[in-house]
């Protein structure tokens, strides 16, 4: 397959699956934070403090999403090039 067709196919797949990728990523991040918050609640930390601590421990959501997008793009590129 020619390079431009591979690139077109990669972009098309990314556009089609991007929304699902974003939903899955958001759900995974939400679940991670909820589980961490529950751990803090189980040791007696109040709800507001537990939520704050869980978010601080998780880190910058925007940065993590960007890193995941870049990783997904790189993986997609590697799969097409192979």
Low-confidence stretches: none
Q: Give the integer mean of the pLDDT values.
A: 86
The profile of the biggest β sheet is: none
State the order of secondary-structure elements, H for helix, E for strand: HHH
Number of strand elements:
0
* First-residue to last-residue Cα separation: 12 Å
Rg, Cα atoms, Å: 18 Å
Broad shape: rod-shaped
Helix content: over 70%
* Protein structure class: mainly alpha
Number of domains: 1
Taken as a percent bin, the fraction of beta residues is under 5%
Structure description:
The mean pLDDT is 86. This protein has one domain (3-81). It is built from 3 helices and no strands. The protein has helices at residues 3-42, 47-58, 61-81. Helix 1 runs antiparallel to helix 2 and helix 1 packs antiparallel against helix 3 (61-81).
Q: How are the SSEs ordered, and which strands pair?
A:
Blueprint: H1 3-42, H2 47-58, H3 61-81
Helix pairs in contact: 1-2, 1-3
Descriptive keywords:
single chain, 82 residues, mainly alpha, 0% strand
